[in-house]
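User: Structure tokens for this complex, please. No commentary.
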Amino acid sequence: MRIELTEEQKMLQDAVRRFSAEVVKPRAKEIDETGEFPRSFFDQAGELGLAGVAIPEEYGGAGMDALAYCLVIEEVSRVCATSGVILSVNNSLVCDPILKFGTEEQKKEFLTPLAAGEKLGCFALTEPGAGSDPAGMRTTARRDGDDYVLNGNKIFITNGTDADIALVFASIDLEKKHKGITCFIVPADTPGYSHGTHEFKLGVNASGTTELAFQDMRIPAKWRLGGDGEGFKVAMSTLDGGRIGIAAQAVGIAQAAFEEGLAYSQEREQFGQHLSDFQAIQFYLADMSTEIDAARLLTWKAAWLKDNGKRFTLEAAQAKLFASEMAQRVTNKALQIHGGYGYTKEYNVERYFRDARITEIYEGTSEIQKMVIADWVLNKA
Amino acid sequence: MAVLTEPGTEPRTATGETESGIDFSLNEDQELMRDEVRRFAEERIQPGVAERDHEHRFPVEIFKEMGEMGLLGMLVPEEYGGAGTDTLSYLLAMEEISRVDPAVAVTMSVTNSVCCWPIVKFGGEALKRKALPPLAAGETLGGFGLTEPGAGSDPSGMRTTARRDGDSWVLNGEKAWITNAGFAGWYVVVARTNPEAGKRGLSAIVVPADAPGFSVGQPEEKLGLKSSRTAQIFFSDCRVPAENLLGQEGQGLKIALATLDHSRLGIAAQAVGIHQRALELAVSYAKERVQFGAPIANNQAIQFKIAQMATELAAARALTHHACSAEHTSQAGRLAAQAKVYASEAANRACQESLQIHGGNGFHDHYEISRLYRDVRVTTIYEGTSEMQRLVIARHLLSR
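Assistant:
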């Protein structure tokens, strides 16, 4: 048992913290307000190796591991949750499944530019009628010679406005429910592929979340990721890893809110003393720091299991559930410490509070995490 | 491409642990020890646990066996008869004993954490040679006297005095809520040695139960931990040798606080053990109990309670183990307080929810959860209330 970062991990953390402070933070407020997708951030992150942190160097990645990936996502999310999720999707939801399930040709063609940050990926699973339950999807893929022909619509696709490559899930046989789901690697310039424009959301506003539409979109069979009907397995396994990234994002958002709540409490005076002299505020800070530490440990534990080739479905779900709900409570308390100022755009906590909310929803709602956890504890433990 | 260096390439030691970095695994010794303690707890402590609780019977015979196994002087170096294990092993053992009987665990915690530990850390050689071997061997038990009727969270209000008289200390006063009172052979007692010096006027003195002028009051009736013994202890011109002073005169509060920093981890581990058991009981009951034609585990409301309990258990255990791995760093005090406050409050929630899953049966004495529900309550109170833990954490955060 040893829970302390190595010198190398600390160096990585410092490097990403510097990058975040210098490159990401100055634009965080602006992109939140305009919703403009920060493509230049992604390009620069790619140059640093942050687009494919845990992808081997031979495929364009940084050759690190899931724990390093957690450190990266936490640090970026600490200054800008939008940037955090952009990276998280590219790393966890696009690069990881191509590495795990892809053919050598697919890895050379798609993984290498994605992991190098030369191309941006998105993950297209959710549909208007199929959210937590992907088996209800209506997007179809019909085999036609050496191709598949895809038709359908996807919604809430992070990076969707700017993605160069999409992982698209479609059914080869609607009757087969989840056993018909199949995954395809789709270049965004494929005829029949189209995407929507920026959609304003409560938080992570510049993440390029939009809808995708496929109309008689022809994809060569060699770009099918995994076999026919294996898409559900690809999606579930991918989301296990993705949840670690979202947990790290939630920890980063909460850490920022905590730091600013702490600093504000030591500056602001009321009744002739600093807010931090009031026991009620001290107790808020104590609980915030305790819960952040607990969430970070759960996240690191899931990553450590993944890095050691052990099963981590339960631990990833626990980390994601705990961290996201923790971030909601912590950002709420940080805003409360700021009082009326916290409710204004003058302070960052208002943004943190909005950004935290999505972590309880995407990549599996809290309710889905609880279903996963209960299934393990009741039936598999 | 990768301008960032590659982590995770440190050499591995013979035990398979990395030299630094993240490693959540237990080493082989720790796993063996945990398994052995679990077996012992299930075979030797579990039988009769409900009867002992009913009869408020202190299980002297169990502590004899625990002493022989080395569970009462785990952190005492071998040269003084102890087991000389690491802190994590102690926490794992505490968790396993607490999972079966939290009342046995509190005696174990007090003997190890707040009696043996400060004697090892702050005692002189003669005192260590005298007190530690019988404690570590389980020939007698340990006690800790800090709290008084008028001095709980605020020890500076204490009135027990110790006056130097030649080669002796002479104590007068009383201490309240003393675990193991009447069964302990040695008590670490904090008393005022200088009425003028405020917080610096307190000293820690080790009092043997056979010292003249020492006596024990009637057992207290408590909500839980009924088979553990709690009583007042009294000092009436109680005379002990001068060498029984821990550290220097005036260091009593410092020693008491350091001891509590350490012992909090044991209470966190106790809470984790109770939480673990509450979850196990909830799972097995939910799978057996049939209502509306199906096991109640089929209901999402029950599943979600179980998921929440399991997640909070993982968080509590992680905080406890992390605090242990950082016990020699500047953050040790804050991390131990975090582990204690979180683990104890989470364990209380878990017992509440587990009892709820048991329905009316959970309210019945025949079901184990009803005892755990009573036993767990004290974990947010003793060895520093939740409120004191939050003050400790906040002090660390704000002093940076």
